[in-house]
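Replying to the earlier thread about multi-chain prediction with a worked example.

Input:
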Amino acid sequence: MAVLGIESSAHTFGVGISEKGKILANAKEMYKITDKGMIPSRVAEFHSNNAKAVITDALKSSGLSLGDIEAISYTKGPGLGPCLRVGQLSALTLGEKLSVPVYPVNHAIGHIQITAHLSGIKDPLAIYVSGGNSQILGIADEGLKRYHIYGETLDIGLGNMIDNFARAAKLNPAWGSTVAKVAEGGSYLQMPYTVKGMDFTFTGLLTHAVKSLPHNSLRDVAYSLQETAFSMVAEASERALLLSGKRGAILCGGVAQSKRLREMLGAMSNSHGCGFFVAPDEYNADNGAMIAYVGELMHRHGAKPKNSELGIKQRYRIDEVDLRWL
Amino acid sequence: MALKKISEGAEADIYELDFLGVPSIMKFRRRKSYLVPEIEESLRFVRTKTEARILAKASSITNAPRPLFVSKYGIIMEKLQGIRASEMHSLGSESASRAASILASLHGAGIVHGDFTKANLLAYENRLYVIDFGLSFYSSSAEDMAFDVLLIKRSISKDEYASFRAEYAKSFDKAKEVLKKLDGIERRGRYQNRSLDAK
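Result:
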């Protein structure tokens, strides 16, 4: 018996299937982003048109049929309202049709939990970096059954900052891997570096980088922006690692696909004799498998969400989620 | 001058030694080879230089360790006795006021501590000392100062913070402006309550 999870918080409509912690399927369709970014209603329309096909695809690759599904989970938030709504309605409809329980999942918990699960590291420090989020977190006190945020961005998310820079530099497609490519072989220009304890800010760096574009080569600016931003995250993570006394670190979220960030955090963790793990990219990009996995954890640990909790929540904080499985 | 490593901090290693007859602490910023050389150099050399200057000033105006010897990446300073406030059962309102008057003196001299938490307050008998100026800098900005207040606010209880705030408001002439900034920072923060004992 397996749990089917639906993710639709942003541009990806994903469906995953988890059985006893084993990922049997991770199907997805991604809305193509143009230079105009994402218009939520258009993305939601895309999700509606693809929902049935992706669900069918996931079942097919798992070799299961709908009758084998014992619970459904979906992303409750954070994310774009119209997009979240499509996943939620698909989940509720399936739940009703199959007469199985439905579980609401926090998107960030999905990324962290699946990565922690695949890593095999016990009680790791989690570095979660995506478009909208950049946080360093972990379990500070098991009794609280909540994640503790050691440090985080005080303004915008790391991915969002890099995408913004890419748009200002007229790169296409305007996202992180393009910036990484143009940054290759650059030399370092001094940039604002802001770490406050274990928190950090990115807007000053972004403004400075965009303003330096006319007077410097794109390669050097892109290189310096990337090195500075990643160094800030690495330094704050190092402080959190030592303060928390954790023996390993995991990196997850969309920006975890960056090779340079992995290299930096890996070297940092290893320099303290700590393990380091990044999941394969299919789990760092938005995906349904992580939602299925957390749904299964909730199902096995007796979560009983009320009907009123089965909504969507665009701003759904990670430290308000109860971790029943601890 | 036998060296004994006593702790490994995020940016520096701390050693205990006897320096010309004075019980001392040496803080050495170790290499961070995962960074590009320019950023690594700036984090190690520039921060050491700034820290040494600020330590000299701070120890002349409030309870902070005196620097005895400074090199490119390291500082030897006097060793203070006492236990970290973070290891005490609670700080208590009296010590909270002492912390406030220390912070007021620093801010009055244009010094922002940068990591003003219980872990960096040493309590010894009836005295309180502030240590670790590794993230300190000179600034006259009320916003920078407000971050110091925010950090300590997050690491102490509500009652302790009330004593802290009262004493800080009394001992620092720009306190009103700083506390107003603090409200603004807390409103725009994504996570408003991050203290470890938050229930």
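The radius of gyration of chain B is 17 Å.

Feel free to reuse this layout for your own posts.
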